[in-house]
Amino acid sequence: MTMLSISELLSRTLSPDPSTREDAERKLESLARESFHQYMYMLGQELLSEASNPSIRQSAGLAMKNALSAKDENIRAEFVTRWTQIDVPARKQIKDGLLATLSSPVSTSGFVAAQVIAAIGAIELPHNQWPDLITILVHNVQAPDNNTKEATLQAIGFICETIDPSVLQDVSNLILTAVVQGARKEEANQKVRLAALRALWNSLEFVKKNFEHEGERNYIMQIVCEGTVSPDEDVQVAAYECLVKIVQLYYDKMPMYMSQALYGLTIDGMQNPNERVAMQSVEFWSTNEESIQNGEQPALQNHDFARPVGQKLVQVLLMLLTKKEEDEEEDEWNISMAAATCLALLASVFEDDIVSLVLPWAAVMAFGSILDGPKASTLSPLVEQALPFLITMMNDPNVQVKDTTAWTLGRISELMTPETARVASNCAWCIINLAEHMSGGDTDVPTYPLSAYFDGLISSLLGSVTEKSENNFKATVYEAIATLVSTCAKDCFPTVERLAAEMLTKLNGTIAMQREIVSQDDRTALQELQANICSVLTNIIRRMSNMIAPAADNIMMCILSILSSSQRSSTVLEDAFIVISALSSGNFIRYMTDFNVHLIRALQNPQDHQLTAIAVGMIGDICRALNEQVLPYCQPILDRSVKPAILSCFGDIAIAVGGDFEGFVEPVMQIIDEAIQMVLAMPVNADRSYDQIDFSNLLREGIIDAYVGITQGLAAGQKAHLLTSFVERMFLFMETIQNDEEHSESVATSMAGLIGDLADAFPEGHLARLYSMPFVEKLLKELKRSYYNQKAQELARWARSRVKRQLIVI
After folding, report:
1. How many domains does the chain have?
2. Which domain covers residue 90, as residue numbers?
3. What are phi and psi of 186, to 5 degrees?
4. Are 125 and 158 a contacting pair, CB within 8 Å?
5. Is residue 110 within 8 Å of residue 103, measured between CB atoms?
């Protein structure tokens, strides 16, 4: 009989026929007994071969793993002896093949190779027989290939899972570096992030020294917290699993992180529609309480983390108790059982206080039913306590729960009376939440659940405000109106049109009142009312879009009157500018002469940072709306007194006016030079804070965007030669950015755009010396490797084609 190859034997182990499968397994066992070295080598080669069937490769890998590891200690000892009897060069040959398999494009092959590597590592690493393994794996994580990174991180995870932490203590920093590298939010491949976070989970027990250092601990916590908001659900689950283990192992280090991030992340996670995320978030709190109550860390201080958020915790857990599906098995662990367990643990913490936390949820229907009887003064505190819970219950997927809650909220709305202003304010807040929930984020629909009640809601809200109403109540009511407008469906537009007319009437009335006001308190109250009305008008304009055109002149005249009659420090100015920004369109030119005076005044008022920022943003909006029509108004806008914060607007203006930007080139370039000096004066050492790095990159991006706009504008007007004396400093500035490892990808992308635009703007070969600078090639290669950013890749390819034209004469 012909001897079957290893591939054929492995194939037969997958046969549905029991006799064929058992025969193949016996022959493989026989081969292992006759020559274990030959057996492992052939399996390794089969696993490595890209020509083999993926299922056979996986079988080969599993056979290798099963020949190296076993749960029974006696059997495992035999396996260890059998492996170590293979001579060192032969073992190295097998291990090299496994390491190469980590780079296989077939992910299942890389995964099983990672398991085999971990099995061998469990045998050799305790005896220092594979000393360079961790170094090799850490190097692999730097590879550009995602399959290599993913499989390598899986191998690291398996190694950390199977080997005693004390064995890996000396290489813990190396392992942590590799794992964190793969788990960062900048890693676009979510499979790589998932493998890294799972590896981190397995490595948490032996990175105690790292957790003792605040800087390292902060970075690890940042990476894990960022993972909880990944777009990939598996990554989210893995990140929350890490948080559970971290609070179990490092409870005493958690106080700062609880207040800064973990309270919000875990409570939000409990409400995540993905039950696996919700389960881990609940488990976080259960683990937190168990660690203290069961004495797992008896020497630690009880920080009582749950008490500051006890009400919200109980609220969410009670909601989760309703999540049990009808077809679930009684003994199946699910989110409702997890919530019940956690609630029981919290009860032992809060003791008697748990009763007052649970009661508001005990009978929503009963609560709604009793609202007719008691006095408003009796019900007011109860209603205030119940509203947050009831609003949250409107998100419940159970239709009956939502229906009962909506009915109760409707009954509460009847309490909007002058003598219960606080309750009325909370009811307005309730409407805000309802409007946001009911729209579902999609307003481009003909109708929505609130359409039938929209007109009545607007009328009721407007009618609830009187001259004697408290300012906070007025603000909440107008916010509710603005929210209803911004989230409404198209069949509500007739009501919105009538509302626009009413808001204009009210706003015009406030202008007349300005002359009669004497006290500062009255002036402040009037300005707050004007700001509230402006916020509603802004949302009306944005929601109605072009349909607001018939009312645009009246709105603009009213807003210009407010700008003219208000003091320079008036709080209403910001809201008035936002209304005008919403109105900016191609027809805006007819307002520019009157409005430009107020725009310049805002730009020259740096003490009011918020107003200046809004005015800066408006310059870009106006330029994009008017194009070359904006030219007559540029002179005061481009005055040197304007701060570098508006750098990117210079580019917008240059693109809008084209060659007519000629008269502004010199003064604008001086301003940009000042901004560059500001960037160069910033610290470049490792002690920079994240805020400093972010600000530096924002300023760099503004400068490059200004250069891009100016280059494009002058080139379009056939006046690119005006840039000749400035081009070299552009390149030198870009070189300093490229040499800073902390530059952002958005800055790099903008630089590639500038490099391409300058190459287009000047004759071929004219800038050859500058395009020969090493940083240019380095930058474009960096962007071409942005596998997760297609825009950056495409821009890099385009810029490279332009660079070649400049270098053609060299």
Report:
1. 1
2. 32-130
3. -70, -15
4. no
5. yes
- Calpha distance 776→382 (Å, rounded): 67
Angle, to 10 degrees, between the axis of helix 107-124 and the axis of helix 133-141?
A: 150
Rounded-to-integer distance, Cα 404 and Cα 394, Å:
9
Number of helices and strands in the chain (H, E):
41, 0
* Whole-number Å distance between alpha carbons of 557 and 563: 10
Specify whether the CB–CB gap between 770 and 739 falls below 8 A: no
* 712 in a structural domain: no
Q: Does residue 768 lie in a domain region?
A: no
Query: CA 434, CA 439: separation in Å to the nearest integer?
Result: 8
pLDDT < 70 positions in the chain: 1-3, 290-300, 322-332, 352, 354-424, 426, 439-441, 515, 518, 567-570, 585-586, 604-610, 612-613, 634-646, 684-688, 691, 787-788, 808-810
Quote the CA–CA distance of 424 and 386 in Å, as a whole number.
14
DSSP string, 42-82: HHHHHHH-TTS-HHHHHHHHHHHHHTT--SSHHHHHHHHHH
CA–CA distance, 234 with 757 (Å, rounded to integer): 42
Distance separating alpha carbons of residues 481 and 536, to the nearest angstrom: 7
| Distance from C-alpha of 289 to C-alpha of 435, rounded to nearest angstrom | 37
389 part of a folded domain: no
pTM to 2 decimals? 0.46
Tokens 């006016």 sit on residue: 657
| CB burial readout 197-225, b (16+ within 10 A) else e | bbbbbbbbebbeebbeeeebbeebbbbbb
In a domain, residue 122? The reply is yes
